[in-house]
TrEMBL record:
Residue ranges annotated for the Erythromycin biosynthesis protein CIII-like C-terminal domain, each copy included: 312-420
UniProt-listed Gene3D superfamilies: Glycogen Phosphorylase B
Residue ranges constituting the Glycosyltransferase family 28 N-terminal domain according to the UniProt record: 3-131
Name the UniProt record assigns to this protein: Glycosyltransferase family 1 protein
Pfam families tied to this protein: EryCIII-like_C, Glyco_transf_28
Gene Ontology biological process: carbohydrate metabolic process; vancomycin biosynthetic process
GO molecular function: hexosyltransferase activity; UDP-glycosyltransferase activity
InterPro entries: EryCIII-like_C, Glycosyltransferase_28, GlycoTrans_28_N, UDP_glucos_trans
Amino acid sequence: MRVVFASHGSLGDLVPFLEVGKVLVRRGHHVRVATHAAHWEAVRSAGLDFAPMRPDRPADAAFHARFMDPLRGPAFIFRDVLAPAIGDSVADLTATVADADVLVSVTLALAAPIVAEATGVPWRSAVFQPAMLWSAVDPPRLPLLPFVRGAPGWNRRVLHYAQEGVADWALPIARYRAAHGLAPLAAHPAFAGQHAPGGVLALYSPLFGTLPADAPPGTLQTGQILQTSQVLQTGQVLQTGNVLQTGQEALETGAAVLPAAVERFLDAGPPPLVFTLGSASAHAARGFFRDSARAARRLGMRALLLVGREENLAGLPLGDDVAAATTLPYEAVFPRAAAIVHQGGIGTIALSLAAGRPMVLVPFAHDQPDNAARAVRLGVARCVPRRLYGALAAPAIAAVLADEAMHARAAAVGAAIRAERGAEIAADAILAASAGMAKVQETS
């Protein structure tokens, strides 16, 4: 089978597809990933074929500051970046699916519904977190939806008004469809319009929430898809104390190897606190890592800061007890942490759970507040507002470290999530959908 995955956004909007793609390749199928140029190396390192899909993501700090704005970020990325480029996205994806047996897309791949409709390629959509189902039964806790929480009828009304309030986001897409003779938009592309009528893959653990009664018809929850390796690119910086080293280790698929300097730091004392902001929030870190180092010292704890960008190393109060690196494979580092402090991305939460470690969550934007709320409900985390992090970091971390029930709960949840087979179940579903559609087309 020839499978095409379509993704736009941060690395967190791509990793589940990379993991499912690895499973498909091991089974002898061909996988191509259509996404923007910044993800080329991640796709190729996973052993998958890369296909460009515009628009490309600027690398400047101003772009990421706007993208990670908790209130205006969603409008910026959808209305100002992705929707106006819909013609380019459709052209790129149309070329990519020319020989495909199935197309699988995630929320921000706005071209996928159009390409599926225009070409007839079998299409399945995916969501990586519960918030993207926009359920009135299990409503998302998002900055732009402060009034959900009531009965499903009330929540349904709030979600309806929210869709009406962002109708202008979809205007470029509506114009494109009209200009190319396609039917008018039946649903907003950021809401129900993202979901394929042939079926939706919910690629996350039921620990975050089982499928609500109002999930799209044909939705399959696969279980969590855990990242199995992370590429440490040449030129990334590792800093311990006052010593800078350049990381040269290339991590092969499934082999999470840590640089020797990191191993020495981890072995030199008790388990450290690990602080990270993932791939997107690290661009808007501000004082997060400086405050984190100070909080660790206040508690008498060692700390490992995964700062994401070399610029975030500047001015950090490092020493023998506080080390920093731009990035390291979470699956190798998290099991050796005393606790993990991060932004609340669904993939980072899942890897923290898989490591059996409790968390302090500091949501920045987008789905992170909802993910954090679910982790708190699960009994494995505390949540700290970003604007109060400097003042509340140390007491929140101390409370998590002292919470024996939370540690026990994290260990139990870790065993459960490690037993899930999300990538394999998703691969089965994609192949079944592709084969089924092929039989229907042959019959017709």
